[in-house]
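Fold sample X.
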Amino acid sequence: MNNLFNLNLKYFTLERVNIFYYSFQNREILKRHCKEYFISCLSAQDLDKAYTYKLPVLIQRTIASKALTRLILSNYLNNKRPVDITIQVGQYGKPFIPNSTIYFSISHCETAFLMGVSKDDELGVDIENLKGYSYHHLVDMVLSVEEKKYYQSMPIELQEQTFLSFWTKKEALLKANGTGIKDNLNQLDTIKLFNKQYRPQYWCREIVIDKDHQAHVVGKYINRGD
């Protein structure tokens, strides 16, 4: 994966998943990487999608996200040319490679791209950046009864992080299941769900990036290996 390290891509392993992180925060570097590395990796369809946006920064983030997905997958597919990799999406938008046992999930926010890849488990990843917002108006809609109690027990300065911790767990779980975001998120209790006594087929880990981001990966066992 040496070609990826030229892009300042962070790489580490959690459980049975390889995690990749790329920062969008330096606009000049992002612009240069798009020009020198990313555009050549994309299909005409990818580029058409990117250029539906009007703002240059949104175009660049889209190009970077799609190109990084292909560049990373190339390393798991015998260094197949990124532009030649076929990526399809399921009914609810989950991306996959046809006739492959490589599982992957991607997420991005205003400041970062995140991707998880596994040869063992279906997975989902989600990343959000902390902005100093209050999510109090969303608590009843998103959090379960027990999650809400935990959220309300936290000091005000930690409530945004706590809310986004629950949010990223839920979104990562739904991505792992291939179902996408649902309306009844408050019926999904991650406190109970990730207790192995109740759901031994799942595992969940926080992805520690920095103090400005909250992220999680959820795996759904396909090949237990035990």
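Fold sample Y, listed below.
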Amino acid sequence: MDRLDHLEHLDKHLVDELAQVARETVRDELREQTRKQRRTAVLYAASGAVALYAGAALALTLGLLLALGLPDWAAALITAVVLGAVAYALRSAARPSASRPTAAPRPDDTGPETPHHRER
């Protein structure tokens, strides 16, 4: 009986050690994946900030070019309208609409709304 208790203790100890190793391995793997994703996120954020400054410089250039032949207020107004139109077009492109097709139906969909359904 004493020998069985000793083996049970060893089994429990072995299971605890295996669980510890598994936790450490998973933790290290997640840490590595997080590090890579963090770097990617920082690069995307930096590119977005630079694109914002580039867009501001482009808008300023457009305004200054228009100001050469128009009053300053008119040049600023035209620049604002152009930027508003671009923003509206981008928003419309991002929004799903009924005229644009959505995701294609999967072949395993056989409901009445899919073309794969046959009336018998």
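Sample Y note: The helical segments are 2-67, 72-94.
Also: The radius of gyration is 31 Å.
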